[in-house]
Specification:
Helix content: over 70%
Number of strands: 0
Structural class: mainly alpha
Length: 439
């Protein structure tokens, strides 16, 4: 195996493990609430989880931006610069988390309106939300720490942080729900405690990363991190702004896809939710390669090693294409069995069976989008990411509005959106690879 391949898998495999554990947090909470004897509790946690996912998703620039900038600092062997990047991101995470807590009432009102939660569910959702919202600084801090560690070429630490978060969530939720009898509030409290446990471990890992020279400079770096000049650094804010706008486009497509399915009927909506699990499974694996691309491409850009950068891009696409072929074959061969495991509703199963050939195209359609997102994050080519996402999102909504009003047409529009994202980025890639470090 080539050196480039070993570097890719050293970074990708722990990231894949971390990604696969993400659904466990929601699964644990759902399982516990599912045994509290009330469908209202299940519905409340479903709405609450959706609200927090959408809210935190908007701040994913803390992870991606910190990762790309840190990887480039790592390539330049700038230890103090890398530490300053993390400290600044943590200050922003704390400030934004505090703002979410202070604005929790209006945010909850907007979220309940956007999700269309029934009035009878509002009290339960509010109870869950008002406890778990105190985890906002921890979750945003985890975004910053996770991105920084990947930028520092370390994906094992985020993997262990995910493991601790999951195990702590199980243990604390069981204690609060069954030991103290706190019900839905106990589930929220358990998840909250797990978030801060993971943050604490992340800070321990950060200290381990700090080299001797950088560690001695930490007091001065902390003072710099909270200065106006550092907090409002033009490059940092520019990267964050473009990534935030890109995320808004992505969220709009996700919400638009769900809403378009709902307009086509309850059965179509249910089938789409089942089939979307195929896309989520694919994303957990492909994002592992993308994270490797973030770390390696950023490091080589920072070091000015164009040859290694180009080789890494080529190897990422080779392994990505192989994975896409495996997923396509698996979806064609085992797709019906997977659908049967996910639902036993005859009408939903029939719709899923009819759409499976389109779903099997997901790996090929999304390959370039997944990998180039990681490569572009490493290059901090965030304006290009925003451009590709804007073009693809506009095309998606045009197809949904002007095309046939069928479930197959909706999935075709989604495939087109994924393919166009990757195509625009692929067109822009040669120019970006030719750029010199620091541009």
């Amino acid at each position: 195996m080539k050196t480039a391949d070993r570097a890719i898998f050293r970074l990708a495999l722990p990231s894949i493990v971390s990604n696969v554990t993400v659904p466990l947090l929601g699964l644990v909470d759902t399982t516990l609430v599912g045994h509290l004897g009330s469908a209202r509790h299940l519905a409340a946690i479903a709405v609450g989880t959706t609200v927090f996912n959408m809210l935190y998703w908007l701040f994913s620039f803390l992870r991606m931006g910190t990762c790309g900038l840190t990887a480039q600092a790592c390539g330049r062997a700038d230890a103090e610069g890398a530490q300053l990047l993390l400290l600044r991101a943590l200050v922003w995470a704390a400030g934004l988390g505090a703002a979410i807590i202070l604005l929790q009432s209006p945010l909850l009102g907007v979220a309940l309106t956007l999700t269309g939660a029934p009035a009878g569910l509002h009290a339960a959702v509010a109870h869950y939300f008002r406890i778990l919202v105190w985890g906002a600084p921890a979750m945003l801090g985890l975004y910053a720490l996770g991105g920084w560690m990947v930028g520092m070429q370390d994906t094992r630490s985020p993997m262990w942080m995910s493991f601790v978060q999951n195990t702590a969530n199980i243990a604390l939720s069981l204690f609060f729900v069954y030991g103290l009898g706190l019900g839905l509030g106990g589930v929220a409290a358990g998840t909250l405690g797990a978030q801060y446990a993971a943050l604490g471990l992340g800070l321990v890992f950060w200290r381990r990363h700090a080299a001797g020279a950088a560690r001695s400079a930490l007091p001065a770096l902390c003072r710099r991190a909270v200065s106006r000049k550092a907090l409002f650094d033009g490059r940092f804010l520019g990267v964050g702004r473009d990534l935030l706008l890109r995320t808004l486009c992505l969220v709009a497509v996700t919400v638009g896809f769900t809403a378009a399915g709902a307009r086509r009927g309850e059965e179509v909506l249910a089938a789409n939710m089942v089939l979307m699990q195929f896309f989520m499974l694919l994303s957990y694996i492909m994002d592992g390669l993308a994270y490797a691309g973030e770390a390696l491409c950023g490091r080589f850009r920072g070091a000015g090693d164009t040859a290694a950068l180009r080789q890494t891009v080529g190897r990422l696409f080779l392994w990505g294409a192989l994975l896409a072929a495996v997923f396509t074959a698996a979806y064609l061969a085992f797709g019906p069995a997977m659908v049967d495991c996910l639902t036993d509703v005859p009408g939903v199963r029939q719709r899923c069976a009819r759409l499976l050939p389109l779903v099997a195209l997901l790996p090929a359609a999304s390959l370039a989008a997944f990998l180039l997102d990681g490569i572009f994050v490493g290059l901090t080519a965030v304006r290009a990411m925003l451009l590709s996402m804007s073009v693809a999102a506009a095309a998606f909504f045009a197809l949904v509005r002007l095309g046939p009003q069928s479930d197959s047409a909706l999935w075709a529009a989604f495939l087109g959106y994924l393919f166009l994202r990757g195509l625009v980025q692929a067109v822009l890639l040669p120019r970006l690879l030719a750029e010199r470090p620091g541009r």
